[in-house]
User: Fold this.
Amino acid sequence: MSDLTLLPPRAAGTSRPRPGARAGLLRAVLVRIGTALLVLLCTATVSFFLVRLSGDPVKQLLPPDATAQQESVLRAGLGLDRPLITQYLDFLWGLLHFDFGNSISYNEPVGHVLAERLPATLQLAAAALVVTLVIALPAGIVAAMRRGRASDRGIMTGVLLGQSTPPFWVGILLILVFAVGLHALPASGYGSFANLVLPAVTLSVYSVAVVARLLRSSLIDVLSSDHIRTARAKGFGPVKTVLTHGLRNASLPVVTVIGLEVGSLLGGAILTERVFSWPGVGQLTIEAISNRDFPLVQAAVLFFAATFVVVNLLVDLSYSLLDPRVRTSR
Assistant:
């Protein structure tokens, strides 16, 4: 008789996932997907109706001396003469087919217009994320390890300034210092590494402050736990203890915030792109709002909303990789 047959049935089956657990996990994933779709539907609906409160785009496309007949012909050509509910239903039908309509300003499909500007925004957000991680992670670790000392107070002072300073003001200040005063970096433009430095730093200031502050707080809680004291008793140095035992346990809330900050970096790029004349989706959104380009504004809002939804979903799925307790509770 094998050893396996001597085990009680319940103990022998503990390594296999229960059908109920698999069904629960599948149900949770489907609920999250359904919630995400509902959020996007609400966002699309709100943006559709709010953008039409900004005014009539026909008035901007035609000269001031245009006749009423010219206005009615253009309005019919843009599909704005139909009842609002009909326009809304057509808009939803187009979303089901990933058809966002034609841009009023550019007279071409909205998808093509966004695709041309998207690489610039992704480049700026990726650079800002790199700056955030390079500065915030070491700053948070040092502040936690040297709690109450001068270095900790200096880092937390910088964190406070970073969280309370408007990003567009930081951008203007950086332009005055590094572009106007020192002539070290260009104040605007796109295409080179030098053009990317000031916008990326400007966009990352708030994220650096948020991530560094949360990492410090989380590490301080972890460093006072029993397993950290056990590691120190075994002879581990403070740096090795933090990096091998403390950082992973403190990373769960930090990963959550970093994921949210990815969405914030894309959304916050609107003002930063405006300050530095960066040709991304943010700059395009401001232009579309000024021109009352309804389809373009709606698509840009959906892009930012979808970014937040997807990032939140990925962060949630990453929990199980960082914390086994989350994995076993599902």
About this structure: The chain has a mean pLDDT of 81. The chain has 15 helices and no strands. The two ends are 35 Å apart (CA to CA). The first helix runs from residue 3 to 6.
